[in-house]
Predict the 3D structure of the following.
Amino acid sequence: MNKRIKKLIFLIIIILILFVPVLIFFSRPPVLFVTENSFIMLYGEDRFTRDIIISSIRLFRQVKAVVVSNDAGNDIISYAVTEISDNPYSVLFPLRYARSAEIYQERNSSVNVVLLEGRHQAGSSISPSRQNEFFIYRTDIESDFYRAGFAAVSYAEGNNGSIAVFIEPNINAVYGTQVRQAFLRGINEHMNPPQVNFYSYIFDFPDSIVLSCIVLVGAGWELLERRPGIPVILFSWADASMMPSDVVLIIDDSPLAQITQTIAFVSAGEKSGHIKSKFTILDKRNTSGNF
C-alpha cells in the first residue's frame, strides 16, 4: 500500500471520527420544553441560550424551547410543540400548562410527556385518572431548604446577628412546617448555630433585629434595599448578572435548570421523582463553595 492510499485512509478515518458523532447528535429526537417570553426575559437571553447549549451537550441530543406568549391558549400551545418537532424524545410542560399537556398527549401518545411542578403552586393539575399517562417530577423542596440553611450559616459566620427567612405566603401555607424543619436541620449541622426567624410579610419584621444573613423565598424583597451589606440567599429564576451585590447565592428550580435530571429520570423509566434545584454561588466568602 503506497503512502498516498495510506494518507487517504487516514483522512477518511479522521472525517468519520469528527462527523459521525455530529450526525448522530442531530439525528436523535430532540427534547422540547414549553416556556414563555416573560421567562426568557427574567432568566436572561444570553444565559437562556447558553444553558440550552449546555443541556444539549450533556444529553447528547438537541434541546429546543417552545416559546409561547403568556396568554396563549391550550390548543395553540399544543400545536406550537408539534411545529418544533413531530417526533420529539420528550416534551416538558410546567404544571401551569397541564391542560396543554393533556391535549398534546391525547394526540401524541407515543411521546414521553413530562410535567414539572416547582415550589410555586401552578393553579393547574392533571386529572387523577390520567396521571399515569405522564412523567411527573417535583422540585425537591425539602432538600433545597436544608442546603439553604447550611449555606446561610456559612455566609453568616463572622457576623453577629440572626438569620431572617422570608417565605412567600402561598408556599408557607402549603409547605410551611416541612420547609422550616428542613432549613433548621441545615442550620443545626453547624456548631453554635445562630437564631433563625421566619416571616411571610415585611411588616412582621422588626427593624431593630440585627441580621447576619437573609433568605428570600418570594417575599421580603424590600430588605435588599433596607439592609445593604448583609449576605442574601435568593430563591429565584432571575439572571445572576442582574442581582445586587449583596446576593451571594441563587437557588433556581426553573424547568431549564432541571432538564438534565428530568431526562435522566425519563430514560430510567421513573414516572415520578424529586429534582434538586441548581445552586449558583455568586460570592464564595466564608463558604466551602459546596452546598
Notes: The chain has two domains: 11-139+255-276, 141-252. The domain at 11-139+255-276 is CATH 3.40.50.2300 (Rossmann fold). The two ends are 59 Å apart (CA to CA). Residues 163 and 196 are 5 Å apart (CA to CA).
